[in-house]
Structures are given as C-alpha cells and as structure tokens.
Amino acid sequence: MKTRILVIDDDPAIAELVAINLEMAGYDVVQATDGIKGQALVVQLLPDLIILDLMLPKVDGFTICQRLRRDQRTGDIPILMLTALNQTQDKVEGFNAGADDYLTKPFELEEMLARVRALLRRTDRIPQAARHSEILSYGPLTLVPERFEVLWSEKVIKLTRLEFELLHCLLQRHGQTVSPSEILQEVWGYDPNDDIETIRVHVRHLRTKLEPDPRHPQYIKTVYGAGYCLELPLVVEGDYAEGGAHHHGNSAATHKG
Hints:
Elements: E1 4-8, H1 12-24, E2 28-32, H2 35-45, E3 49-53, H3 61-70, E4 79-83, H4 88-97, E5 101-104, H5 109-131, E6 134-138, E7 141-144, E8 149-152, E9 155-158, H6 161-172, E10 177-178, H7 180-188, H8 196-210, E11 220-223, E12 227-230, E13 253-256
C-alpha cells in the first residue's frame, strides 16, 4: 500500500507541482485548497504525512496544526509546513503550533522530497523502538517510546514526537555536548545548513516541561558555539520530586522489556 500524503495549499500551481513530484516519487497524493476541507480530509483519510500551507482561506495553517495536534486520531501525523513566510517568528509560531518541519517558498523540489523522506523515516523509527519496549533512563528520568512520555520522578510528562526524539538524542549522549549538525541529522534526518532556530524552539519546549526554571536551565544546557548538553542528577529535589525519585544508575541504560 502506497504512502499517502495530503497537500493543503490554496495556490493551484504550487499544489499541482508538489503533487506531481510526490506522485513521481511513488506517493499517493490527495489535495485540498482550503483549511476546512483540509482538516476534514485529515480526519477522514488519516494520511501518513501532511504538507500544510500557512496562509489558507477559511482556516489558517497555524490553527489547523493546533487542532490536529489536540486530536488523538491525528496528533502524531507528521506535518511539513510550506509557506511564503520567511521570518524567524513565523517559524517559531509554526513549531509552537506543532509542525515537524518548515519549508519556505520558493523551494527546490529535491529539498522538499528530502524533507518528506526524512519525516517518514522518523515516523517509522519510533514505532520500531516501541515494539521492542525500549526504555531509556537516567537518574529520575525514564523515556517511554510507545507513548512519547517521560517519567520524571514519578511525574508523567507528555511530549510531542520531536520533543521525545530530541530528548532521546541528548540522553544517549548524557554529559556530552551534541552539535546542531548531529541533532539535525539524528532527529530531523537531514542537515539544512545547521538550522539552529529549529533546534532552539524545541529545546525551549523541553525546558518548559522539564526545568524548574526554564529561563535558567539546570539540565538541558546550552554550550555556546558548540551545541547542547543534557546533565541530569541522580535525584531531583523540589517541585519535581514530590513522589520521590527512582535511582536507575550512574549512566544512561537501555532496558528491553
């Protein structure tokens, strides 16, 4: 069965160009020209990936993205935002709304296809880990791949797919500095000229969920000019340790259940 991609874009020339190239690459493509139809088709078809323009009639792409992420049926479908907007703040808002990746018009069709392949590869990889019941833990933190959750001193924290993969990437190299290029290759599946803003947005999201004071991070640290480093204690004190912390050892370990 072919991988199905839904293209939601009100520009017929661009939508058709994107659709033709996706079909030539072997994908099954469905198109929608406005936000209302697009959102309805997502729920109806449950596509493997969505290419979503931000500036849509009736309902804009930001709103659609937020709605899809809140819906349990559609919350994990990868979304590639396709837009003429090129401001950093627009990128930040897109990622905040739940987009997995962001491509600015005009774009090279080969780059679009590379982003699509990377998103689909990443989607396949996490269920594989979940099937093996892989749990990665260090000190008070345990990752649960099958639910995209973190157990943080007995507190359950829900992550997005990208937040989960970013944290997994850092946890595998606990105590080491991981460069933006390494993160982009492992989490996003490509290295778009070290798109550091993409990483910054998701690091901020993780800090908001894990740090007692996200503005002064204790665990997910920025190593200026080099990347990011995750440094966890064996026990977390204060607000995050209400239930008491579990000790999992002095280094990151993978357990197969």
